[in-house]
């Protein structure tokens, strides 16, 4: 129950076990064609969706280095570990970074983006880089509003980390006119790590003509060219394409709306149950991510608590990162997670809290009852 790698369905595991095929074969080209179409369905876009053998960080770095040049001015939203990462990446490539900060556990303020973008009369800002669902804190940022301000600026590109939001909540790329959207296979896609996906708008492709940052393996023009023949510029992770095909078929069968509703129910069940167990949520309740719930442990050491859950129930929870280590634990509920999994992890947490004398049996029962009510709601 961590926010990635997420549980993998049996059908997907079976697909992984197929014998590899040649990545220049007709069979593989057919596989690329169907997975690309299904990726466009999931991303709700007609944009090019490129598949890179690499993690979500590879897709984000590719988005940055293919559309920007050394010395370009960019805005980076930073309200967690991954927001921090994009600041580091931008600075590594010599970009001039304007940071918009928010305390970990709180959402980025869209008005701050609006103010800076409106004041940029010379249109010097080339991109706005931010994380949609901040995995380290359980916060989801208001991407819809922020993207509307980027759109009004006209010049700046939106470069968005949707690694733990795509496949878990609504990210209508074409409707919100998002330029560059990155995600990774081991999250909402329900397959093992190793593939990343990047959506590129026409505006983003136009920006690639002016970019002078160094790139080779992550040169997206080569991926676009090869996609014309349903291929890949380098040797891809063939068996992960088998897995991707199966996972996307399962997602299409469930339907986008049902996927989003399921993740929302799980978010509500987890957050409601944790409060009933006298645990405080780390994230602002108005901006809870549908993918992960971060929970404060107060005087309890979160790392010791995680060890107890693992030893007694063989359930792995995620810990806090950086200064949050030992202060919070995080429950992932994205991808191939069902109601039974949610009830199981709430029961395990309740059991350990009971053993530690932190709650009563009545509170444990209340938590399960409230969670069940959330899961039964439509």
Written description of the protein model:
The protein is α/β, with parallel strands linked by helices and 378 residues long. It folds into two domains: 10-253, Type I PLP-dependent aspartate aminotransferase-like (Major domain) (Aspartate Aminotransferase, domain 2, 3-Layer(aba) Sandwich); 255-376, Alpha-Beta Complex (Aspartate Aminotransferase, domain 1). It has 14 helices and twelve strands. Strands 1-9-8-7-4-2-3 form a seven-stranded mixed sheet, with helices on both faces. The chain has a three-stranded antiparallel sheet with strand order 10-12-11. Strand 11 (318-319) and strand 12 (328-332) form a beta hairpin.
Spell out the blueprint of helices and strands.
Elements: H1 10-16, H2 26-43, E1 48-53, H3 56-65, E2 73-78, H4 81-92, E3 96-101, H5 110-119, E4 125-131, E5 133-134, E6 139-140, H6 143-153, E7 157-161, H7 173-176, E8 180-184, E9 195-200, H8 202-208, H9 220-227, H10 238-254, H11 256-276, E10 292-296, H12 302-313, E11 318-319, E12 328-332, H13 339-355, H14 361-376
Parallel strand pairs: 2-3, 2-4, 4-7, 7-8
Antiparallel strand pairs: 1-9, 5-6, 8-9, 10-12, 11-12
Helix pairs in contact: 1-10, 2-10, 5-6, 11-14, 13-14
């Amino acid at each position: 129950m961590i926010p990635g790698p997420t549980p993998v369905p049996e059908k997907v595991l079976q697909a992984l076990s197929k014998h590899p095929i040649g990545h220049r074969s007709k069979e593989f080209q057919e596989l690329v064609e169907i997975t690309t179409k299904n990726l466009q369905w999931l991303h709700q876009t007609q944009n090019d969706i490129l598949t890179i053998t690499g993690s979500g960080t590879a897709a984000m770095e590719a988005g940055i280095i293919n559309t920007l040049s050394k010395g370009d001015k960019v805005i980076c939203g930073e309200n967690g570990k991954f927001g921090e990462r994009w600041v580091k990446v931008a600075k590594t490539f010599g970009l001039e970074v304007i940071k918009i900060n928010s305390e970990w556990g709180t959402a980025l303020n869209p008005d701050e983006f609006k103010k800076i973008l409106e004041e940029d009369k010379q249109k010097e800002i080339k991109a706005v880089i931010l994380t949609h669902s901040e995995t380290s804190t359980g916060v989801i940022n208001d991407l819809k509003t922020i993207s509307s301000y980027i759109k009004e600026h006209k010049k700046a590109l939106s470069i968005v980390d949707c690694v733990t939001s795509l496949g878990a909540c609504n990210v209508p790329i074409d409707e919100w006119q998002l330029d560059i959207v990155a995600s990774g296979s081991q999250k909402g896609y329900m397959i093992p790590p190793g593939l990343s996906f990047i959506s590129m708008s026409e505006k983003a492709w136009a920006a690639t003509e002016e970019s002078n940052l160094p790139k080779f393996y992550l040169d997206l023009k080569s991926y676009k060219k090869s996609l014309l023949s349903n291929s890949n510029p380098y040797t891809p992770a063939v068996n992960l394409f088998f897995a991707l095909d199966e996972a996307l078929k399962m997602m299409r069968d469930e339907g986008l709306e049902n996927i989003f509703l399921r993740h929302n129910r799980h978010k509500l069940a987890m957050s409601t149950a944790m409060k009933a167990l006298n645990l405080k949520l780390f994230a602002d309740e108005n901006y809870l991510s549908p993918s992960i719930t971060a929970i404060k442990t107060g005087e309890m050491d979160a790392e010791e608590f995680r060890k107890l859950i693992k030893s007694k129930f063989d359930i792995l929870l995620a810990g806090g990162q950086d200064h949050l280590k030992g202060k919070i634990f995080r429950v992932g509920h994205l991808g191939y997670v069902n109601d039974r999994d949610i009830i199981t992890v709430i029961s395990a947490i309740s059991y350990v809290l009971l053993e530690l004398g932190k709650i009563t049996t009545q509170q444990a029962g209340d938590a399960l009852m409230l969670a069940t009510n959330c899961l039964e709601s439509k």
